[in-house]
Amino acid sequence: MEGLDPLWDELFPAEQARIVQLLVERVEVGQEGVDIRLRVDGLARLVHELGGMADDPRRAA
To answer: What is the pTM of this model?
Structure first.
């Protein structure tokens, strides 16, 4: 996840939204604070998708 931080600002908003959708299941805001539920499989899916993008010649820099 630390490797994503320097890249975050370089991503398009749609890509940022996709990453958030993969990682966050639910956000609840209450008087006592915020409860954020993460998807158990979200990080693995993100790594899988990013790995596939690296193999895609259309994404090569």
So the answer is: 0.62
